[in-house]
Design brief:
Distance between the termini: 10 Å
CATH architecture: 3-Layer(aba) Sandwich
CATH topology: Rossmann fold
Oligomer: single chain
Largest sheet: 8 strands, mixed
Mean pLDDT: 93
Helix content: 25-40%
Shape: globular
Length: about 160
């Protein structure tokens, strides 16, 4: 059953939170598609992931290469190109209902200081939970993440 986790970024930059979530996904053996809306932001994330600590190496690549399908973590603006069972959305990128239901996990990371990003995340929450997809809302508080809300569980 799909679970969507919304991460409301108020203290940590996108690169830090993305790295932490991607690290947990990689450790769990999941392939991830990280979908954004801006190639420049994806290039910045790509560079940040390469500069991470050696013991936290995350094998990844930007889409558009000959080996997209082999990438455990693929960054791009389009459809899932690496057979991932999980999807990370940044910068207002969206998932449609059929795609969400076919995945094990979807993460929505959004900047709490950007009202457009907050509005887009709210719209995505309402759309997905309204369709019966299980969701959780997490917010940064006192240096850690705190679960603030859960959406309705998926219905058969």
């Amino acid at each position: 059953m799909t679970q969507v986790l919304f991460y409301h970024l108020t203290r940590s930059p996108l690169e830090v939170t993305a790295r932490a979530v991607l690290g947990k996904a990689w450790a769990a053996g999941w392939r991830v598609m990280l979908r954004g809306t801006d190639r420049a932001t994806l290039a910045k994330l790509d560079a940040a992931l390469w500069l991470g600590p050696e013991d936290g190496f995350l094998p990844h690549g930007l889409d558009g290469g000959a080996q997209d399908g082999d990438q455990p973590i693929l960054l791009g603006c389009g459809p899932i190109g690496n057979g991932a069972q999980t999807l990370m959305l940044v910068e207002g990128a969206v998932v449609d209902l059929a795609e969400a239901r076919a995945l094990e996990r979807v993460w929505v990371l959004f900047d709490g200081g950007d009202e457009a990003a907050v509005s887009a995340a709210r719209a995505q929450w309402k759309f997905l939970t309204g369709a019966g997809v299980a969701a959780q809302y997490w917010s940064e508080a006192d240096g850690g993440w705190e679960k603030k809300s859960s959406g309705a569980p998926a219905t058969p």
